[in-house]
Amino acid sequence: MGEPHYACTVVVPFTDLGRTHASLSAELLQEFAELLETGAFVNGPAVARFEDAFATYCGAARCVGMSSGLDALRIALIAAGIEPGDEVIVPAMTFVATLEAVTQAGGVPLVADIQDADLNLDPDAAAAAVTDRTRFVLPVHLYGQLADMRRLGSLGVPLIEDACQAPGAVRDGHRAGSVGLAAAFSFYPAKNLGAMGDAGALLTGNDGLADLAFALREHGQRRKYEHDVEGYTARLDTVQAVVLLRKLPLLERWNEERRRIAARYLQALEGVGDLRLPQVPAGSEPVWHLFVLRTADPAGLGASLREHGIQTGRHYPTPVHLTPAYQHLGYVHGAFPVAEALARECLSIPIFPGMQESEIAQVIEAIEGHFDG
Ligand SMILES: Cc1ncc(COP(=O)(O)O)c(C=O)c1O
Question: Angle, nearest 10°, between helix axes 357-372 and 251-269?
């Protein structure tokens, strides 16, 4: 997950969930107490309520709560009909779970490079990778910015969105999760919409896919003890649904806060040292899950910031095609130069709802100081 580099004394944390949750704790404790009394820990009423609310928020017809983003992605591929050996095109820069979902669903990840313009799957590279065994294209909305779904859609191969980092992001008038055949979200605690543990969701406009996903997440049963297909234990816990229902109405405000912080960084850090700042193509409204700088020496900049008590992270230091877990795919160094350059140069700086103006200013000052010194 790209662990933050921790300083001895933290002055500006990489993220601060305690701050995000402070205003909610009394309400949540009350709801947990009620849940304890009812004992409806599995498939409690909050699950369906959250599913309806999240589908509406994203502009999708159906939502199936899942136990994690990986489960949502893997079950999306299975419910969409992936067959053993089917190829799925994935970007070279993503969190490793994107590939885990493909191989665990029986598919073969076909890695393609990203593009500098948005750091997402390059539609030209994806087009060049398509073969007659390609079943799906799996774009990742990396760092909270949607991939170019319009151009990727024109490839004529069904799209499954890895929207784990992008709830609420918009591009070309469409919200993350509403464009592809299906989409997966993660509610890992540090995500823009985070649970108090692992949780996820699958969105789709396809009723057949949604019905099968409902069965697959619960031992393949559509009705109790009627097992039409082999399934999993991949349900969204009621306690997580309670948390997510409480937090969903605040997501727009939190995303706006992230946008405000990103705008400050973009304005203040332009032209500083050798920094390359994130680009936002016309028509794109990212939700800034991460704010990723590029510099020739990210370790040096990270060390300087650590001296000022500022935590940073790296997302991700190794592109997926070069991780040991996926060596067997046979890709070599140099295969995907844009992703490899990003992996060498990336440094993520703090961005989170509740971040104070003084903290933003300290981050900016410390970065300027690093390059001035
Ligand atoms: C791009 C991406 N895909 C998939 C996942 C997997 O989500 P989870 O950790 O909830 O399984 C994550 C988050 O960790 C992610 O960032």
Answer: 30
